[in-house]
Amino acid sequence: VLGQEESDERLMARFRAGDAGAFEALVRRHRADVFSFLSRLLGDRARAEDLSQETWMKAIAAAPRWEERARFRTWIFSIARNLAVDDARRRAFRGTAQPLDASGRPGDPPPDRWLAADDPPPDRAAAAALLRPRLEAALASLPEEQREVFLLREYAGVPFAEIAAITGTPEPTVKSRMRYALAALQRKLEALGVGAGEAVPDPDGRWP
Amino acid sequence: VRHEVARERLVELEYGELPPAEARAVEEHARACADCRAEREAIAGTRRTMRQLGPDAPEPGGERILAAAAREAAARVRERRTWWRMGLARLVATAALLLAVGGVSWRLLAEREGREAVREARGEAAPAAVAIGERAAKAAPAAPVAAAPPIPPPAEPAPRRAASRDAPMATDAAAAARPADGAASTPAAGPVREARPEALPGSAPAPASSPASPAPAPAAASPAPAASAPAAPPEAGGATGVAGGPPAMGPPPARRHGVAARSEEAAPAKGAPSEREAAAPSPGRGALPETAADVERTFACDGGPLRVRAWRDDAGRVRRVVRELWAPGGVRTVVLGYDGGGRLVEARLVAPGPGGRDTLSEAEVSRDPETAIRGARCP
User: Fold this and answer.
1) What is the pTM of this model?
2) How high does pLDDT run on average in chain A?
3) Facing residue for B50 by CB, picked from A17, A19, A135
4) What is Dmax (Cα atoms) for chain B?
5) Beta strand ranges found along chain B (DSSP E)
6) What pLDDT, on the 0 to 100 scale, is given for residue B82?
7) Phi, psi (rounded to 5 degrees) for B327
8) What is the ipTM of this complex?
9) For the segment A153-175, what is each residue's pLDDT rounded down to a tens digit?
């Protein structure tokens, strides 16, 4: 019986021992977060769907090499992140998209696909419904390298040191990017009319 | 904490990644520093806002594919584990078998060494001559006269045998092994005396010979009298009596232990011909004699099949070797004798075979008994 209190690492160990149900529990627990990370990192839901499935399939295949000391969440997000980077490189090679790592130059115009900065500010009631796209837009406005760090730290809960390991970036650089990301988000949210501390419950949000 | 350092650490502080002491120091600075306080509030506010963005829901249906893949992988894991366990079980079984075999081998080796040690001890205590004699006495009654006894009887006078014992090489041996009892006994007397001390240790403890022969004589040196004494009282008595006689004397009839052993059936036969017939397969008979040799091997030689038979004493040492070359017209038979130390003490040509030389070749005379039975060379 899988209890909610059972740790990811314990579930992973059970899966490695031949318990498929343990892996299904891990999928249930983290699939939406992995997909959201990929979706926000890539700004492409369809690609995120594909890469999300690929991430989990890869996790199944790589399970025998998983070390029990490694946090499962860090591990699964690093798989997802590397797949996204590889995919972006492949697409860049084919000339269909900018590579993930190269597109994050400061000063690049953010891909505001959901909400334009010059849209009229919504009224308070509409704000709740429109908050989500605006937050997405704020995220999307971040350079890739900052977005990656922010997504991993804020939503995936991966510590800075592990983000440094996943991205192959020095830890101080990771922290700097995080500071830039927070500052940029603050500015963007203000520009989008989202005040700091504006607390509007997200309809399907699990984050408190 | 310096202001710049504290300001840099605010993000880590907000994410709870600072060590406790550093966190306290940065917090303390941030409380006192308006700039840092504002920055900290900005970070916390942005985080609060951004955390209202919940996770996106991926398309449903993907879980089913993942669950199927996970079940497949788990089944493979279980299968591998089963195989591994089976492999382990097999490995354990193999290891156990090897251990068992090794243990038994070691045990056998140890026992064999122990037996050999006992044998050596016994072999030194019991004279080789007695051992051979006993064997001969045992085997002889069981075997019909027509069949050759395990140990062919000496057909020559004692001095001759002593001579051959001393000089087993082809020329001397040939002289000694001349089938017809000739006049060669006198010249052989010299070597015999020299041979005596060597032959003595083996025969000295023999019960029959020691009382009868105060002075070592060639006859006493031969194992035959010792063996014949208990086996055939009437003739053996004569033998022992003669055993102490002068070496140059002609061989008394009963001096042949083979005669003693077969005394019931071949008692009156004292002559060389009958003995030779009994000792070696009759050339014309064509059938291999049925005797219980300890070793029996057949080699292919140009002249025909060479059968080599050997008899061991209780200590397992080869004491008597009979080589028979089954040539088309008859059998060439050579008898070799060895003492307990493995020294060649006898080499006789019992029958030359059809057209065969009446001398022994070097190939037919092996100084080492084990060589004689293993790689017997063709005559």
Assistant:
1) 0.47
2) 81
3) A135
4) 142
5) 295-301, 304-312, 318-327, 330-338, 344-351
6) 77
7) -75, 160
8) 0.78
9) 999 999 999 999 999 999 999 99
The encoded tokens of residue B123 equal: 């072999």
Residue B135: alpha-carbon gap to chain centroid: 23
Model confidence at B178: pLDDT above 70:
no
Pairing of strands B318-327, B330-338: antiparallel
Amino acid in position A123: D
Mean pLDDT of B211-233: 42
The single-letter DSSP state of residue A122 is P
Half-sphere exposure of B254 (CA within 13 A, CB side): 24
B306: its two tokens = 């060479």
Identify the three-state secondary structure at position B196.
Answer: helix
Look up residue A144 and give its two tokens.
């890739």
Which whole number is the average pLDDT over A108-116? Answer: 42
Amino acid at B106: W
Considering only CB atoms, B46 lies closest to which of A40, A63, A196, namely A196
Which of A16, A196, A207 comes nearest B54 by C-beta? Answer: A207
- Could you write out the DSSP letters of every residue in B156-182? S-HHHHHHHHH--SHHHHHHHT-SS--
Q: What is the pLDDT of residues B235-256, one digit of tens each?
A: 433 333 344 334 444 444 444 4
Nearest CA in chain B to A63: B73
Closest CA to B346 of B150, B154, B131, B127: B154
Using a CB–CB cutoff of 8 Å, tell me whether A46 touches chain B.
Answer: no
Q: What would you report as the CA-atom Rg of chain A, rounded to the nearest whole angstrom? A: 18
> Phi and psi of B347, rounded to 5°?
-145, 110
Which CA distances in Å does B147 have to A147, B17, B199, B276, B325? 109, 106, 30, 11, 17
| DSSP, residue by residue, B314-345 | TTS-EEEEEEEEEETTEEEEEEEEE-TTS-EE
The Cα A39–Cα A52 span in angstroms is 9
pLDDT-derived band at B310, boundaries 50, 70, 90: confident
B80 phi and psi angles, rounded to 5 deg: -60, -40
Residue B307: beta bridge partners? B298, B324
Contact call for residues A49 and A84 (beta carbons, < 8 A): no
Structure-model confidence comparison of residues B106 and A140, the more confident one: A140
Token pair 């203000």 is found at A190
| Sign for the pseudo-dihedral over CA of B243, B245, B246, B249 | negative
- Per-residue confidence band for A23, with pLDDT thresholds at 50, 70 and 90: very high
Secondary element (H or E) of residue B239: helix B233-243
Contacts of B73 in chain A (CB under 8 A): 15, 20, 23, 60-61, 63
Q: What phi-psi label fits residue A70: left (phi over 0), alpha (psi between -120 and 50 degrees) or beta?
A: beta
Round to whole Å and give the CA distance between A63 and A18.
Answer: 11
Q: Which candidate in A179, A192, A198 is best for mutational testing of the B interface (most B CBs within 10 A)?
A: A179
